[in-house]
Amino acid sequence: MNPARVWNLSILAVLAAMAAARLPLVALNWANLRLHPSWMLTLAMIHHPLLAAAAYAQRQRMPLWSAADALAAPLALGLAFEQWGALLAGSEYGKEAENGLAARWAVTYTDPLAARWSGTPLGIPLHPAQAYAALAFSLLAVLLHFWLPKRHQPGDVAGAALMGIGVAVYLTEFWRDSEGRGALLDGALDGPQAAAIALVAAGALALLERKKTLGIDEAAHE
User: Which pTM does this prediction carry?
Assistant: First the structure.
């Protein structure tokens, strides 16, 4: 892979994420933006700029599978940092930690801004679900990093990343407060868990054995 093109792709993806996060925020909250511009423009929001990254990769004739493999571990690490940020901000907060082992590492929020921005309950010990997810994503990033040079075919690391992210999201949702997360199948699943199942399915498809000619084409591009 050309390091400069991978770097440019990453920068483009970051800029696309910033634009995708801020433009709808401004459009949907114009009245609040006029009253509190600094609050609205600094709210942390995460969007997935895959379309911009894929368009750049195709324009530069980068091998998509290999590019996805190279970025899999950094993406997992980025998700870990995002969850640590969510923990500090009080967003995506966990369920109330009942008496027992979980209460020893529970987190209690007291800042009114956490309640105002994310609806975080104040003064109540909560599961640090964001930390659970951050640790899972960090472990996944390490595994993907060491697997990259041993991949069987292009796309294997990306497929494993999708499956790992999906499993981490699905499991950690059991400790998250369900407020505003969307109930599906009479509460059997929430929105993020449904998305997690889709990620696991997409990762499994990426891991399927593909024609050998695909691997030859990928090697020719590299």
Answer: 0.74
Amino acid in the structure at residue 31: A
The span from the CA of 191 to the CA of 135, in Å, is 22
Quote the pLDDT of residue 53: 76
| C-alpha distance from residue 60 to each of 4, 13, 68, 194 (Å) | 11, 15, 14, 34
What are the structure tokens assigned to 76, written together?
């997992």
Angle at 79 between CA 139 and CA 10, to 5 degrees: 115
**CB 120 within 8 Å of CB 88:** no
**pLDDT per residue as tens digits for the range 107-143:** 999 999 899 888 899 999 999 999 999 999 999 999 9
Question: pLDDT for 43-64, tens place per residue?
Answer: 434 445 666 777 777 788 888 8
Do 61 and 221 meet the contact criterion of CB atoms below 8 Å apart?
yes
